[in-house]
Amino acid sequence: FAGYISQVLKNHTDHACDGEYVSLRCPHRTTISIQSSFYGRIVPSHQMCPSRYPHSYATLIKEDVACSVGTSLQKMLDECQDRRSCQFLVNSRLFGADPCPGTSKYLIVWYKCRPNEYKSKVACEDDKLRLSCKKSMVIAIYSAIFGRTQGGSLECPYQNLGMPMIECQSATALQLMIKHCHGKRSCSIYASTYEFGDPCYPGIRKHLNVIYTC
Protein backbone atom coordinates (compact mmCIF):
# COMPACT_ATOMS: atom_id res chain seq x y z
CA PHE A 1 0.00 0.00 0.00
CA ALA A 2 2.74 2.50 0.94
CA GLY A 3 4.60 1.81 -2.31
CA TYR A 4 1.43 2.27 -4.37
CA ILE A 5 0.63 5.55 -2.60
CA SER A 6 4.13 6.95 -3.04
CA GLN A 7 3.86 6.22 -6.79
CA VAL A 8 0.43 7.86 -6.98
CA LEU A 9 1.45 11.03 -5.12
CA LYS A 10 4.85 11.37 -6.76
CA ASN A 11 5.45 13.90 -9.53
CA HIS A 12 7.20 11.97 -12.32
CA THR A 13 9.57 13.57 -14.83
CA ASP A 14 10.81 12.01 -18.05
CA HIS A 15 12.88 13.40 -20.89
CA ALA A 16 14.14 12.34 -24.32
CA CYS A 17 16.38 13.93 -26.93
CA ASP A 18 15.45 14.18 -30.61
CA GLY A 19 15.70 10.69 -32.12
CA GLU A 20 15.05 8.92 -28.78
CA TYR A 21 11.88 7.30 -27.45
CA VAL A 22 9.99 8.83 -24.54
CA SER A 23 8.18 6.26 -22.41
CA LEU A 24 5.68 7.04 -19.63
CA ARG A 25 4.28 4.31 -17.39
CA CYS A 26 1.98 4.18 -14.35
CA PRO A 27 1.24 1.40 -11.83
CA HIS A 28 -1.77 -0.95 -12.02
CA ARG A 29 -5.16 0.76 -11.48
CA THR A 30 -3.76 4.22 -12.27
CA THR A 31 -3.50 6.28 -15.46
CA ILE A 32 -1.23 9.06 -16.72
CA SER A 33 -2.19 12.63 -15.84
CA ILE A 34 0.01 15.10 -17.77
CA GLN A 35 0.94 18.13 -15.63
CA SER A 36 3.27 20.04 -17.96
CA SER A 37 5.45 19.59 -21.03
CA PHE A 38 8.35 21.33 -22.79
CA TYR A 39 9.80 20.69 -26.26
CA GLY A 40 12.63 22.85 -27.59
CA ARG A 41 16.00 23.93 -26.18
CA ILE A 42 16.80 26.35 -23.37
CA VAL A 43 20.23 25.00 -22.35
CA PRO A 44 23.27 24.51 -24.62
CA SER A 45 23.79 21.06 -26.15
CA HIS A 46 26.98 20.44 -24.14
CA GLN A 47 24.75 20.47 -20.99
CA MET A 48 21.85 18.39 -22.30
CA CYS A 49 21.18 16.29 -25.42
CA PRO A 50 24.29 16.87 -27.59
CA SER A 51 23.54 18.06 -31.13
CA ARG A 52 22.72 15.33 -33.67
CA TYR A 53 24.14 17.42 -36.50
CA PRO A 54 27.74 17.05 -37.80
CA HIS A 55 30.21 19.30 -35.99
CA SER A 56 31.02 21.28 -39.17
CA TYR A 57 27.27 22.02 -39.69
CA ALA A 58 26.75 22.89 -36.01
CA THR A 59 29.49 25.56 -36.17
CA LEU A 60 27.88 27.19 -39.23
CA ILE A 61 24.40 27.39 -37.64
CA LYS A 62 24.35 29.09 -34.25
CA GLU A 63 22.45 26.97 -31.72
CA ASP A 64 19.20 28.55 -30.50
CA VAL A 65 18.90 28.34 -26.69
CA ALA A 66 15.63 30.24 -26.48
CA CYS A 67 13.53 27.81 -28.51
CA SER A 68 10.24 26.33 -27.32
CA VAL A 69 7.32 24.76 -29.18
CA GLY A 70 3.87 25.80 -27.97
CA THR A 71 2.15 22.58 -29.05
CA SER A 72 4.10 20.21 -26.77
CA LEU A 73 1.53 20.09 -23.95
CA GLN A 74 -1.38 19.38 -26.31
CA LYS A 75 0.66 16.68 -28.08
CA MET A 76 1.43 14.96 -24.77
CA LEU A 77 -2.25 15.13 -23.77
CA ASP A 78 -3.23 13.59 -27.13
CA GLU A 79 -0.65 10.80 -26.91
CA CYS A 80 -0.66 9.89 -23.21
CA GLN A 81 -3.46 11.41 -21.09
CA ASP A 82 -5.61 8.81 -19.27
CA ARG A 83 -3.55 5.85 -20.55
CA ARG A 84 -1.65 3.38 -18.40
CA SER A 85 1.48 3.78 -20.58
CA CYS A 86 2.59 5.46 -23.79
CA GLN A 87 5.72 5.51 -25.92
CA PHE A 88 6.72 7.43 -29.07
CA LEU A 89 9.76 8.68 -30.97
CA VAL A 90 10.65 12.33 -30.31
CA ASN A 91 11.28 14.53 -33.33
CA SER A 92 10.26 18.00 -34.49
CA ARG A 93 7.73 16.69 -37.07
CA LEU A 94 5.50 15.53 -34.21
CA PHE A 95 5.00 19.06 -32.94
CA GLY A 96 4.15 20.92 -36.17
CA ALA A 97 6.12 23.93 -37.42
CA ASP A 98 9.76 23.94 -36.26
CA PRO A 99 10.63 27.36 -34.74
CA CYS A 100 14.39 26.63 -34.74
CA PRO A 101 15.49 24.38 -37.62
CA GLY A 102 19.11 23.32 -37.28
CA THR A 103 18.88 23.25 -33.45
CA SER A 104 18.64 19.79 -31.89
CA LYS A 105 15.81 19.76 -29.35
CA TYR A 106 14.51 17.68 -26.44
CA LEU A 107 11.24 16.87 -24.70
CA ILE A 108 10.66 17.09 -20.92
CA VAL A 109 7.32 15.93 -19.53
CA TRP A 110 5.96 16.11 -15.98
CA TYR A 111 3.13 13.77 -15.01
CA LYS A 112 1.34 12.06 -12.13
CA CYS A 113 -0.33 8.66 -11.87
CA ARG A 114 -4.02 9.17 -11.11
CA PRO A 115 -6.16 6.39 -9.60
CA ASN A 116 -8.71 5.00 -12.08
CA GLU A 117 -11.46 5.27 -9.50
CA TYR A 118 -11.50 8.29 -7.29
CA LYS A 119 -14.02 10.38 -5.40
CA SER A 120 -14.32 14.11 -4.87
CA LYS A 121 -15.73 15.83 -1.78
CA VAL A 122 -16.23 19.52 -1.04
CA ALA A 123 -16.85 21.26 2.29
CA CYS A 124 -17.60 24.98 2.55
CA GLU A 125 -15.64 27.07 5.04
CA ASP A 126 -16.26 26.05 8.69
CA ASP A 127 -18.22 22.92 7.66
CA LYS A 128 -16.95 19.45 8.55
CA LEU A 129 -15.57 17.22 5.79
CA ARG A 130 -15.99 13.47 6.37
CA LEU A 131 -14.27 10.76 4.32
CA SER A 132 -14.87 7.03 4.70
CA CYS A 133 -14.19 3.74 2.95
CA LYS A 134 -15.83 0.31 3.08
CA LYS A 135 -14.66 -2.28 5.56
CA SER A 136 -11.09 -3.52 4.98
CA MET A 137 -10.30 -0.52 2.71
CA VAL A 138 -8.42 2.65 3.63
CA ILE A 139 -8.28 6.24 2.36
CA ALA A 140 -5.62 7.34 -0.13
CA ILE A 141 -5.56 11.13 -0.61
CA TYR A 142 -4.76 12.22 -4.17
CA SER A 143 -5.15 16.02 -3.96
CA ALA A 144 -6.50 18.70 -1.62
CA ILE A 145 -7.26 22.39 -2.15
CA PHE A 146 -8.26 24.84 0.60
CA GLY A 147 -9.01 28.37 -0.52
CA ARG A 148 -10.78 29.81 -3.53
CA THR A 149 -10.41 28.70 -7.16
CA GLN A 150 -11.31 30.80 -10.20
CA GLY A 151 -15.07 30.68 -10.62
CA GLY A 152 -15.45 29.28 -7.11
CA SER A 153 -17.31 26.12 -6.24
CA LEU A 154 -20.91 25.42 -7.20
CA GLU A 155 -21.41 23.88 -3.76
CA CYS A 156 -20.14 27.04 -2.02
CA PRO A 157 -21.52 30.07 -3.90
CA TYR A 158 -19.41 33.22 -3.82
CA GLN A 159 -21.10 35.72 -1.49
CA ASN A 160 -18.66 38.64 -1.47
CA LEU A 161 -20.03 40.53 -4.47
CA GLY A 162 -17.96 43.64 -3.77
CA MET A 163 -14.62 41.77 -3.77
CA PRO A 164 -12.47 40.91 -6.81
CA MET A 165 -12.62 37.32 -8.09
CA ILE A 166 -9.19 36.01 -7.16
CA GLU A 167 -7.61 32.58 -6.77
CA CYS A 168 -5.93 31.75 -3.47
CA GLN A 169 -4.92 28.34 -2.14
CA SER A 170 -3.22 26.95 0.96
CA ALA A 171 0.24 25.52 0.24
CA THR A 172 -0.10 22.95 3.05
CA ALA A 173 -3.61 21.52 2.37
CA LEU A 174 -2.35 18.29 0.76
CA GLN A 175 0.18 17.55 3.53
CA LEU A 176 -2.47 18.22 6.21
CA MET A 177 -5.03 15.93 4.59
CA ILE A 178 -2.43 13.17 4.17
CA LYS A 179 -1.42 13.49 7.83
CA HIS A 180 -5.04 13.53 9.00
CA CYS A 181 -6.67 10.89 6.76
CA HIS A 182 -4.07 8.82 4.91
CA GLY A 183 -4.32 5.08 5.52
CA LYS A 184 -7.40 5.40 7.78
CA ARG A 185 -10.79 3.85 7.18
CA SER A 186 -12.55 7.14 7.99
CA CYS A 187 -11.65 10.66 9.09
CA SER A 188 -13.18 14.10 9.53
CA ILE A 189 -11.75 17.61 9.53
CA TYR A 190 -13.18 21.13 9.61
CA ALA A 191 -12.65 23.26 6.49
CA SER A 192 -11.45 26.13 8.67
CA THR A 193 -8.63 28.65 8.77
CA TYR A 194 -7.79 27.20 12.21
CA GLU A 195 -6.80 23.93 10.49
CA PHE A 196 -5.43 25.26 7.18
CA GLY A 197 -4.48 28.90 7.79
CA ASP A 198 -5.91 31.69 5.62
CA PRO A 199 -4.38 31.90 2.12
CA CYS A 200 -6.87 34.59 0.99
CA TYR A 201 -7.78 38.20 1.76
CA PRO A 202 -9.95 38.59 4.89
CA GLY A 203 -13.64 38.12 4.14
CA ILE A 204 -13.24 35.77 1.17
CA ARG A 205 -15.27 32.59 1.67
CA LYS A 206 -13.19 29.49 1.09
CA HIS A 207 -13.83 25.78 0.55
CA LEU A 208 -11.96 22.49 0.92
CA ASN A 209 -11.93 20.17 -2.08
CA VAL A 210 -10.42 16.69 -1.62
CA ILE A 211 -9.93 13.98 -4.23
CA TYR A 212 -9.29 10.52 -2.82
CA THR A 213 -9.67 6.83 -3.46
CA CYS A 214 -10.23 3.80 -1.26
From TrEMBL:
- Note the Pfam families from the entry: SUEL_Lectin
> Boundaries of each SUEL-type lectin domain copy?
16-114, 123-214
Cite the GO molecular-function annotations of the record.
carbohydrate binding
Q: Which PROSITE patterns match?
A: SUEL_LECTIN (PS50228)
Membrane-spanning ranges: none
Task: Report keywords, A-Z.
Answer: Lectin, Repeat
Q: Can you name this protein?
A: EVA1C protein
